[in-house]
Structure formats: structure tokens, C-alpha cells
Automatic annotation (TrEMBL):
High-level lineage: Bacteria, Bacillati, Bacillota, Clostridia, Lachnospirales
Residue ranges annotated for the HPr domain, each copy included: 1-85
Residue ranges that the Swiss-Prot or TrEMBL entry lists as coiled coil: none
UniProt keyword annotations, A-Z: Cytoplasm, Phosphotransferase system
Keyword Phosphoprotein recorded: no
Compartment list: Cytoplasm
GO molecular function: transferase activity
Stated name of the protein: Phosphotransferase system, phosphocarrier protein HPr
GO biological process terms, semicolon-separated: phosphoenolpyruvate-dependent sugar phosphotransferase system
Length: 85
């Protein structure tokens, strides 16, 4: 299990387009990727689950990757999040 924390910098927070991009990219990994926020948890492969968190700018998020390709998934997050969220 690997975790990665990120503070949201996008003014719109986790909106539909970046949630869709995140879920599509996360679906390419065999590992289970979970997003934890102060409002709850979401499966990163499920767009509606991500949007349900209502993530806003300035929130600290924790991404947890568990599985055979968790290192690759975490490396992906480290590049994806600053560019999209």
C-alpha cells in the first residue's frame, strides 16, 4: 500500500472533467486506488463516487494505491494531480 497527499489547487475543485480524466486513467491500473477527503472516501475508478465528495480548492486529499502495480499508479498520480487538480 502506498499513499500520496495532495492539496487541491484548481479553483473549481474536483469538477466533472478532471474527475472523468482521473477515473479513466485510474481504470488503466490493476491496483485499487482510493481517494480520502475530510468528507469521506471514493473509488478513483468511479466518477460519481469522486464527484460525490464535493472536493473544493485548498482541501487536502489522500490517495491510496493497493495492488500489484501500486508504484506505477502512485507515480501516475504525482504527475497527474498537479497538472489537472
Amino acid at each position: 500500500m502506498i499513499s500520496y497527499e495532495y492539496i487541491v489547487t484548481d479553483r473549481q475543485g474536483l469538477h466533472a472533467m478532471n474527475a472523468l480524466r482521473l477515473s479513466r486513467a485510474a481504470s488503466e491500473y490493476e491496483s485499487h486506488i482510493t481517494l480520502k477527503s475530510s468528507k469521506g472516501t471514493a473509488d478513483c475508478k468511479d466518477v460519481l463516487s469522486l464527484l460525490g465528495l464535493g472536493v473544493r480548492i485548498g482541501e487536502c486529499l489522500e490517495f491510496i494505491a493497493e495492488g500489484p502495480d501500486e508504484n506505477k499508479a502512485c507515480d501516475f498520480l504525482k504527475g497527474f494531480l498537479p497538472a489537472n487538480l
